[in-house]
Amino acid sequence: MEFQVVTDKLLPDIEAGRTRIVFSYRKDMAAVAAGIEDRKTQSGYMKLSSPELTALDLVRYPQSGAGLDNIATVLSELAERLQPERLASLSGAFEKAVVQRLGHLLGRLEHPQVAEPMFAALSARGPLPWVELDPKQARDPDLSPPPSERDDRWRVIVRRPPEIDE
């Protein structure tokens, strides 16, 4: 079992019995404080990521999400819980490319209305560069598959569409 934590400190992963705690680094945690909720769990109160912050973090830290296919699968289940205005507000604390990728994925998953306020907030930040949906697929130009589609709205280049587990 793996427990994932985003923190403002660089920490090594920890093994605790059969549980592994994996840390991802974010320099400015205060920027995403609105997306952190205090929740009561079986072991006491914990600070947990809201659905909106989870969606953005999944795209920002794809190595923690076990790849684009898994991220898309989780987003397909999470999309109905996302609050569009809250997502738009939190998206300002993330890189444009992360927001573009999330917006594209939400559209692909047939939840474009959830991403509408986020698109407006992103557009207000200036022109959008073209970004790869999965940057790993474009690392080596000689081995990269050619683009299969381009999302002109979000300015995302797709080389291989994600496959969603149903």
Q: How are the strands of the largest sheet arranged?
A: 1-3-2
Q: Characterize the quaternary organization of these chains.
A: single chain
Shape: globular
- Strand-residue proportion: 15-25%
Write down the Rg.
Answer: 16 Å
Number of separate strands: 8
How many alpha or pi helices? 5
N- to C-terminal distance = 22 Å
Main sheet characteristics: 3 strands, mixed
Which structural class matches the secondary elements? alpha/beta
Low-confidence residue ranges: none
Mean pLDDT: 90
Series of H and E elements:
EEEEEHHHHHEEE
Helix content: 25-40%
List the helices and strands and how they pair.
Layout: E1 2-7, E2 14-16, E3 19-25, E4 36-41, E5 44-49, H1 51-60, H2 68-78, H3 84-91, H4 96-108, H5 112-123, E6 131-132, E7 149-151, E8 156-158
Parallel strand pairs: 1-3, 6-8
Antiparallel strand pairs: 2-3, 4-5, 7-8
